[in-house]
Write a structure and sequence with these properties.
- The protein is about 30% helix and about 10% strand.
- By secondary structure, it is an alpha+beta fold.
- The protein has a four-stranded mixed sheet with strand order 10-9-8-11. A three-stranded antiparallel sheet has the order 1-4-12, with helices on one face.
- Bound molecules: fe (ii) ion.
Length: about 450
């Protein structure tokens, strides 16, 4: 089982480092050695690459902050760099699965070496080393992003052949229906340290860090709007398919329609047609859609989410509309200021390896009755991934170079670690991508 990382903000950085690094290895533990090096699509990475790349990230800190540190291997720097121009030459992404070296054993040795050096470095610094401490925290958030990517990539690689430690799925405890009408007006969008410091409760660990792309908080104006209380389910989505949704150009953006035809899309990724019945393959096996009708649909692209919304006479929310719903009354989370736990949201520590039925987490609802805003599936928004007004990059090439041609998703998924998610968190993917855990809920003008 994936264990939880304690959420106390008092936890030392070294302990957080140990826990987060250990969890990556917990996720890959059921893999066989052959699984680590295979690349099944250009957009996924072999698990061996993830465990080395997350170590490479920390080795860049060792090179800068540890006096006399010598690089472990220049070959590793080449193989495990992802996309950082500033850190030199690197293997092209689609070729990560074309090399059998470094071996898995050598990669794990590298990982252990980096851990030993990093823990010694953390032991040697004092509380004044703010720059390094914040970079280590960034490195841990980066590692948690890769933990989630590992779940996507292992699914693409093995799906139900992977021996995932799946826990018992919850049952829907309440019926969730209709749309919440939410009053517009001026809204502070984005992360604010001041707001966090001013709150009269202890700031949850999730809010003791934020990526630069969530800042600065700034005022935006929202019209009144309505937002689905529930995520769109497989059952809802099947109706769209049965109504010829994938065959009717009227629901699709031109670019989406092109992809539908070019890729011959007829359903979400991981849906399979058997004897004219739609089935869904996931970590637990092959299921008929009717058995999963009340679970949120996922592995849909922005194009598919938008087409469904148009077919349904609705639209996708903007990220500001989503965020306002997720932190009503300036609470950090839909339910209030407490960090997420297993009863409030379906995140990585729930060990479900799947979204849960709508209505499974009544404790996580907001005061408007919107459920599962946090966890289960990332939610597509209509918003372009662009910098907020006043944006300042805090780390070169991490977020700032991706501010074009991508859409924002919000809320985290069943593969997101609990301490990693915030209501202000902005994830981003291209409109056609769907191998990640991406779903949606609809909005409407009122
Ligand atoms: Fe990375």
């Amino acid at each position: 089982m994936i264990s939880s990382v304690k959420t106390s903000s008092e936890k030392s950085l070294a302990q957080l480092y140990r826990d987060v690094r250990a969890r990556t290895m917990q996720i890959v533990a059921p893999l066989e050695i052959e699984d680590y090096v295979i690349q099944t699509a250009e957009y996924m990475s072999p698990p061996r690459w993830h465990i080395g790349h997350t170590s490479w990230f920390f080795e860049t800190l060792l090179q800068k902050y540890k006096p006399g540190y010598t690089v472990y291997s220049s070959d590793f720097l080449y193989y495990f760099n992802s996309y950082y121009e500033g850190f030199g030459a690197r293997i092209e992404r689609p070729k990560r699965g074309t090399k059998s070296r470094p071996t898995v054993r050598a990669t794990v040795d590298y990982r252990n070496h980096v851990d030993e050096q990093m823990l010694a470095l953390l032991d040697s610094i004092d509380d004044q080393a703010d720059e390094l401490r914040s970079l280590v925290r960034l490195g841990l958030e980066h590692e948690m992003q890769h933990q989630e990517l590992l779940v996507y990539d292992i699914k693409h690689l093995l799906c139900d052949q992977f021996d995932a430690p799946i826990g018992v799925a919850p049952k829907a405890a309440v019926k969730v229906e209709g749309m919440a009408e939410i009053e517009g007006g001026l809204f502070w969008l984005g992360y604010s340290e001041v707001q966090c410091r001013m709150s009269n409760v202890q700031c949850p660990i999730n809010y003791s860090f934020a990526f630069d792309n969530e800042k600065p908080a700034h005022q935006v104006f929202l019209q009144d709007y309505a937002l689905d209380r529930a995520l769109v389910t497989n059952g809802d989505y099947l109706e769209f398919i049965r109504d010829n949704g994938y065959k009717d150009f009227r629901w699709w953006f031109s670019e989406g329609w092109e992809v539908v035809n070019r890729e011959d899309w007829r359903a979400p990724l991981y849906w399979e047609s058997h004897d004219d019945e739609w089935m869904i393959r996931d970590f637990a096996g092959l299921h008929s859609v009717s058995d999963k009708a009340s679970e949120p649909v996922y592995h849909v692209s922005f194009f598919e989410a938008s087409a469904f919304a148009k077919w349904a006479g609705k639209r996708l929310p903007t990220e500001a509309e989503w965020e306002k719903a997720a932190c009503v009354d300036a609470k950090q989370f839909p339910w209030g200021p407490d960090s997420p736990n297993e009863t409030k949201a379906n995140l990585l520590e729930n060990n479900l390896w799947s979204p849960a039925p709508v209505g499974s987490f009544p404790e996580g609802a907001n005061s408007y009755g919107c459920h599962q805003l946090i966890g289960d599936v990332w939610e597509w928004t209509t918003s372009d991934y662009v910098p907020y007004p006043g944006f300042k990059s805090e780390f070169d090439e991490y977020n700032d170079k991706w501010f074009v041609n991508q859409k924002v998703l919000r809320g985290g998924s069943f593969a997101t670690p609990q301490i990693h998610i915030r209501s202000t968190y902005r994830n981003f993917f291209h409109a056609h991508e769907r191998w990640m855990v991406s779903g949606f809920r609809c909005a409407k003008d009122v």
